[in-house]
Each structure stands twice: as C-alpha cells, then as structure tokens.
Write a structure and sequence with these properties.
6-stranded antiparallel β-sheet; TumE-like
Length: 104
C-alpha cells in the first residue's frame, strides 16, 4: 500500500493535545477517497473532544468522534475537512488561549 505523508503535527498545551496525520494513499480499495487521515483534539486524560478519521473507510466510511459519541459524516475533500476540524478545535483552544502550530 503506497502512502505519502502530506502533513503531520502534534501540539500539547494546557491539558489539550491536537494530533493531525494526513496521508495520500494509492490503496483505493481500503481508502476510496485517496486519503488516510486522523484529525484529533483531546485531553491529556484521554477524552476525545473532536476526531475526524477514516480508519475503516472501506466498511464504515468517514467518521466524527466526540465526547458524546460518533457519527458518520460526508467527506467534502481533504482541504475542506481540515478547515472544518480547525474551526471546531479553535473553539476549545480559544477558551484556554492555546496556539497550535498550523500552516494557515
């Protein structure tokens, strides 16, 4: 399975951790979108606040995990999805004055 890492970072601050891993993949049987990704914001106590992933895209599709549970979501494209994730994550970061290192 060919995978090209396109973006990766982890930022820990004030009890929160943001971890983003995005890979372009040629394994379109497992990842029909052409992407394998995890966009995660959680606490150091292992509570997921927001996580978009497609770990099982071929069987479960694209998912949004929150502290309240999980839901299937439409995949609007990688750029649109990361912008949506950052906007949601910023609501948490803004409350603690956090500043993750993002390329925007």
């Amino acid at each position: 399975m060919g995978q090209e890492l396109t973006h990766r970072y982890t930022h820990v601050e004030a009890g929160l951790v943001e971890n983003v891993v995005i890979r372009r993949t040629t394994d379109t049987d497992a990842y029909p979108s052409g992407w394998k990704y995890t966009l995660h914001l959680g606490t150091l106590q292992d509570l997921t606040l927001i996580r978009y992933d497609n770990a099982h895209e071929d069987t479960k599709g694209h998912e949004l995990h929150t502290a309240a549970g999980e839901a299937d979501v439409e995949f609007p494209g990688m750029e649109e999805l990361i912008v949506e994730f950052w906007a949601s994550a910023d609501e948490y970061w803004d409350t603690i004055g956090g500043n993750p290192p993002r390329p925007y």
